[in-house]
Design brief:
Number of helices: 12
CATH architecture of the largest domain: 3-Layer(bba) Sandwich
Bound molecules: 8-demethyl-8-dimethylamino-flavin-adenine-dinucleotide, P-hydroxybenzoic acid
Largest sheet: 8 strands, mixed
CATH class of the largest domain: Alpha Beta
Helix content: 25-40%
Length: about 400
Amino acid sequence: MRTQVCIIGGGPSGLLLSQLLHRAGIDTVVLERQSRAHVLSRIRAGVLEWGSTEVLDAAGVGARMHREGFVHDGVQLAARNRAIRIDFKELTGKPVLVYGQTEVTHDLYEARDAMGGTIITEAAGVTLHGLPDAPYVTFTKDGVEQRLDCDYIAGCDGFHGASRRAIPDKLLKTFEKIYPFGWLGVLSETPPVAPELIYASHERGFALCSMRNPQLSRYYIQVPLEDRVEAWSDTAFWDELRRRIPHEAAETLVTGPSIEKSIAPLRSFVAEPMRWGRLFLVGDAAHIVPPTGAKGLNLAVSDVHYLSRALIARYRDGSEALIEGYSETALRRVWKAIRFSWWMTTLLHRFPDQTAFDLHIQAGEIDYLGESVAARTALAENYVGLPF
Ligand code: RFL
Ligand code: PHB
């Protein structure tokens, strides 16, 4: 087989890149390790920056998102039973869109099918060869080994994928921060507790009230890294959530059976550079943020925006400048999101080794947000997304 761009990974990064390139007349093949049903069953992000919705529109996959997504003009930050509203619309002129990653992925698969895009699912043992200059990929499908020749490889295969590992250690710099806690998340078919997201800082730990639609809620609580999901009954989860959110919300919280429950550890991670010759790293393959800033999926979209633009320029007029600048351009935006996600995480969580001094700094910073338009604006402009 031969294609112009081989895309490893059929998550949101890989599918969106494939869609944007195909619309510009560039041929791609997507290789995904899992089945489509497995990819579509993952419950992940819930918040899209407005700029991300514009990229999805440009890819021709925005119709259902605009019909069924929910425009949110702000969020609530709660601490010591007091809520501070961060009014994105007033502070930045832009809202965000609540529309699940699962739905985005679903829309992308449908669009790829409609255009006759090639997606090979359950591709095992994907291996990159010939890098940095003459790439090709081998994999096994239905027990048969195949070879795919290509001009470029886009590594869209997430944190545990093969692409980043294909870059020699001596060329790759990595930066990592592991947080000493995780998030226990629950999805339930209950109405959301409030019309906007609530980010709650509490002495027992952080909690987040989010949603997917008027009958589907998503909640998270900070838990120790050692906790196992099986040890958390639904009742224990709801009781703990109620303790951490403002009293008024706790009293009106509607609970029900969880339809998904999982624990995700929190980490910050960046790999540099994001290009090695004809291999590009995109999305979670290159960087991970803790979910507190709602940035992971949005960074994947901005990487795809920069890379699609670079590849389109290369195939249209032979220009390599954007390809050569891809890593630097993408990383400049990545590091700002890494900083914001680290800051939100540090602001709102309880750390096991926190001193009385640290706690006062945290409380002072939250007070300051309540009192200062400048402080709220800084939070808001990062949350709604910095310009591409
Ligand atoms: P993905 O989604 O991990 O997709 C990578 C795909 O590659 C496949 N793959 C391989 N395929 C072939 N060969 C291999 N060797 C392969 N290895 C892996 C995988 O099966 C998979 O299908 O990466 P991508 O596309 O870069 O997308 C990134 C986003 O998924 C991620 O950043 C977000 O989900 C992060 N995230 C959030 N982001 C937001 O912007 N807003 C949020 O509100 C938000 N909340 C979250 C989140 C992530 C969470 N978890 C569980 C990690 C909440 C949670 C709980
Ligand atoms: C979610 O709805 O899953 C969600 C929302 C906001 C975050 C993280 C996750 O910061």
